[in-house]
Amino acid sequence: MEFISRHLGPDAKEQATMLAQVGYDSVEALVDAALPAAIRAAGGPQLPEPLSEDEAQAKLREYASHNTVLKSFYGQGFSDTLTPAVIRRGLLEDAGWYTAYTPYQPEISQGRLEALLNFQTLIEEITGLSIANASLLDEATAVAEAVGLMSRAVKKGRRVVLDARMHPQVLAVAAERARAIELEVEIVDLREGLVGEDIVGVVLAYTGTEGDILDPRAIIEEAHTRGALATVDADPLSLLLLEGPGSFGADIAVGSTQRFGVPMFFGGPHAAYMAVTDKLKRQLPGRLVGVSVDADGQPAYRLALQTREQHIRRERATSNICTAQALLANVASMYAVYHGPVGLRAIATRIHDLADSFATSLVKAGKEIVSAQFFDTVTVTGVDAAAIKSALQEQGYLVRAIGADKVSVSFGESATAADVETLAAAFGVDEVAPAQGSRLPEALKRVTPALTHPIFSSIHSETQMLRYLRELADKDLALDRTMIPLGSCTMKLNPTAAMEPISWPEFAGIHPYAPAETTKGWHQLIHELEDWLAEITGYAKVSLQPNAGSQGELAGLLAIRRYHVANGDHGRDVILIPSSAHGTNAASATLANLRVVVVKTADDGAIDLADLDAKIEQHGEHIAGIMITYPSTHGVFDPEVRDVCDKVHAAGGQVYIDGANLNALAGWAKPGEFGGDVSHLNLHKTFTIPHGGGGPGVGPVAVAEHLVPFLPTNANDPAIDPTVPTEVGHGVPLISTEFGSAGVLPISWSYLAMIGAKGLEQASAHAILGANYLASRLHDAFPILYTGNAGLVAHECILDLRDLTSASGVTAADVAKRLVDFGFHAPTLAFPVAGTLMVEPTESENQGELDRFIEAMLTIRAEIQEIIDGTIAYEDSVIHNAPFTAATVAADEWEFKFSRAQAAYPVSSLRRTKYFPPVRRIDEAYGDRNLVCACPPPEAFDVSAGADTNTDEK
To answer: Helix 745-778 vs helix 12-22: angle between axes, to the nearest 10 degrees?
Structure first.
């Protein structure tokens, strides 16, 4: 059976039934009616004929065979690690983990929230800082985010000092991101001290890129005396042996957790981390998991301090990050849980001893190393770097050549004593000496206990880990259990055949800076995917570097800004953004140093053309461009989109088309042909990379020919001098590696290889069919807020509950919580219009699942009617008190004015398969008033002892 027939939910009979409901005899006729003719592509994308699942995997095997898996001793922020098989199969490759959405509905996300809280607790304990977030994107952007945080927190000063000892790619990204927000960047070797005033902050390497270890205390003290903040960029594994940055006064710690069991993946995805002092917690970017209480007073997890985030604060947000690398943070957290403090320290000690043995052997043989103190990386100087690197590559080893006369050797988890012998021999050393004891500075050796929370000492066996992973997954609702009808988030099938190859060693075990001759298969796959995406979107070229949609937005906006500056239009710094746009749009514009001007929405949900004209008239030659989402965030195909593009182009601006909703267009229309100059795509939406409970995401940026020079550059390019601003006629590096989260690109490659051009058309058409089927079945009970051509919606629809709320008191949030009792993840709540639910069924849901959702919504509508009719008061209603746990339903006492059956089994089908949430409705405000963002003690969950209400902050 061809892949497309497996990918689409409705079979032929169901398709006919759904079409009859919406009044069309074919999906083509439906698309013809819904999609404005003005934007239709002249022809579909030119893609190869679709492959079967087996054929696609065979092709990937061929690509994989063109990669050479070298034993990696390269370092530079990427280390060899061993992913425990139980974590690889039970988490990374398990659909219960990778198909989950971001935990904005916390009652059905307690498992992944607990895993992320473990991650935060891990980071807090090893860094010695009071609060950590639930992961960022990569090490380089984590440093950039720290620079932004310091500039927000320190109002005086416009200069940031970066330690020249950081990895080159980190320096390149952080420097350009800082310059984009008009900070002066100084890059110095901080071993020579800190000089100057007017400083907002300093970032120190701990350890340096060549392996040396600087005692940071003096630099931190100097920064503080100048009124500046201090960030430490630290390898978390080294912090099992070295004191945490918090112990010597650092304000912020950042780094990558890649070596905590996450494969190198040719550069990503990897979870970065950030920890801060208590006083900086409300400036902290990214997701923050906190502990609150539910309606029964029991501890419950949620995302805390959401008012910092882009979806609420827009251009005033602390960051533009929307999804982070949650799935990989969970892998890292479970790696720490599985090994525990004793195991992690043993791994770190073993790595350090091997590096020590290697260094001791070389020194005894008369070789010179750049530093006698190191953790895992030894850099040898005064050698023929190219010859040694080449000789070792012939033997299957990868080391780093620095200039002509230095070779850096960085030890990872899989390294052995035999590897030390081979490596030493390449430097002409015949005899390997034992480790001398310790190469760590005495004053920095760790004495503070790490990972003291019981969770890190309670999982000793594979059986326990297997059951812990299952216990957490069972608490959650992911795509393997139910439709996730989130508008604008496109939670569709993640094909298993596409997921399998990501953990093949020939893809997962490749260092991102391996020589090109050893990564030919990766480059073949990547360039083919780039070409396919360019063909689908109608643009000239695509960069896969951005590792999230937010980063794709930033890349596109920086391209627009630098294009104008290169043409001498320095004053074009205004970006027009419709009021309905995603919150990341405005936050990304701010990071690109553009001023946001909001354009109103018309009554029909389209852009208000009169207001657009007024804004163009008002800002004239200052307009850099406009950001629009198409189809619109209101779930309709705006027929005026070409008019909008023409008006902005006439004013000298560029058109940015947000590709979040491309699942309604792919195969039928190309943004690059109907007016777009640049778009970002979400491979984790339209192109089936899973959301992973909040990442990984991939957000490629696609541009027209005139913007090609401004695409992101490779941060590891030796030609880049981070001390000098990148010329305005070029792009800037966005993250650590050239191809971003390359490790998950085989998923999208597989999807496109298997679906082909006609399949892509069918997928988009069925997404439109599913949305219109739902809208048609539900509009009498819940009015559809916006419709387009022929009264149709695009791939999503907005259910308007505002009149029902006025009549009954039942809010959209109440409906979201009640849907949990039916075993559904709620639609998108209160976006883009407060008091509404935005529903996107996707093409991968069959009619039976859509009907199950419809039945749930109509049942809830009847429950609302009972309140309107006065049969029951809102406060006493089943909706107001939802959701219900198994413990609540089975309790001896039942205090409610409705039956247990109505609470737990409102429709008969639930008696066959029933999901019970682990907690009742969570008190969101309580969690922010009483902020706890580390794992609570086990006794907090002892129901027999009563709820633990201790709100002391940790």
So the answer is: 50
Q: Which of 69, 737, 67, 73 lies closest to 398, judged by CA?
A: 73
CA distances from 448 to 238, 399, 817 (A): 14, 33, 43
- Is the Cβ–Cβ distance between 167 and 76 less than 8 Å? yes
- Record the tokens describing residue 338, joined without a space: 């599985």
Contact 667, 757 (CB under 8 A): yes
Query: What gap in Å lies between CA 623 and CA 575, rounded to an integer?
Result: 6
Domain locations in the chain? 37-54+503-756, 762-911
Contact 282, 305 (CB under 8 A): yes
Hey, what's the torsion of the CAs at 456, 460, 464, 470, to 10 degrees? Answer: 40
- Helices (H) and strands (E) counted in the chain, each on its own, are 30, 25
Tokens 């007016």: give the residue.
675
> Is the previous residue joined to 746 through a cis bond, with omega within 30 degrees of 0?
no
C-alpha to C-alpha distance for 204 and 215, rounded to whole angstroms:
10
Q: Quickly count: other Cβ atoms within 10 Å of residue 748's Cβ.
A: 24
Closest CA to 730 of 751, 749, 714, 745: 714
53/488: higher pLDDT: 53
Q: Which residue carries 């909008």 as its tokens?
A: 644
The fold of the 762-911 domain, in CATH, is Aspartate Aminotransferase, domain 1 (3.90.1150)
Token readout for 78 is 């990427």
Exposure string over 654-692, b if 16+ CB within 10 A, otherwise e: bbbbbbbbbbbbbbbbbbbebbbbbbbbbbbbbbbbbbb
Q: Kindly state the DSSP code that residue 230 receives in the 8-state scheme.
A: E
Tokens 């299952």 locate to: 470
358-386 tens-digit pLDDT: 999 999 999 999 999 999 999 999 999 99
**Which of 169, 4, 186, 213 is CA-nearest to residue 77?**
169
Separation CA 332–CA 351 (nearest Å): 18
- What residue type is 552 in one-letter code? G
Query: 37-54+503-756 and 762-911 share one CATH topology?
Result: no
Beta bridge partners of residue 173, listed in sequence order: none
Burial classification of residue 463, based on how many CB atoms lie within 10 Å of its CB (0-12 exposed, 13-18 middle, 19 or more buried):
exposed
Q: Decide if 142 contacts 167 (C-beta within 8 A).
A: no
**CA gap 499, 688 in Å, rounded:** 9
- 392-412: buried (b, 16+ CB within 10 Å) or exposed (e) per residue? bbeeebbbbbbeeebbbbbbb
Contacts of 15-21 spanning 24+ positions with Cβ under 8 A: 15/766, 15/769, 17/847, 18/769, 18/770, 18/773, 18/847, 18/850, 19/769, 21/773, 21/776, 21/777
Place of tokens 């969690």: 927
Q: pLDDT tens for residues 738-768?
A: 999 999 999 999 999 999 999 999 999 999 9
Q: What is the CATH number of domain 37-54+503-756?
A: 3.40.640.10
Q: Which residues of 36-46 are buried (b: 16+ CB within 10 A; e: fewer)?
A: beebbbeebbe
For tokens 């630290």, name the residue. Answer: 234
Quick count: other Cβ atoms within 10 Å of Cβ 201?
27
pLDDT band at residue 952, thresholds of 50, 70 and 90? very low
* Cα separation values, 840 from 165, 688, 769, 821, Å: 48, 15, 11, 20
Tell me, what amino acid is at 780? Answer: D
Strand, coil or helix: 502: helix
Longest dimension (CA), the chain: 91
Band of residue 936 on the pLDDT scale cut at 50, 70, 90: confident
What's the pTM?
A: 0.96
Which residues lie across from 160 on neighbouring strands?
185, 201
Q: How close are the terminal C-alpha atoms of the chain, in Å? A: 56
The H or E element spanning position 80 is: none
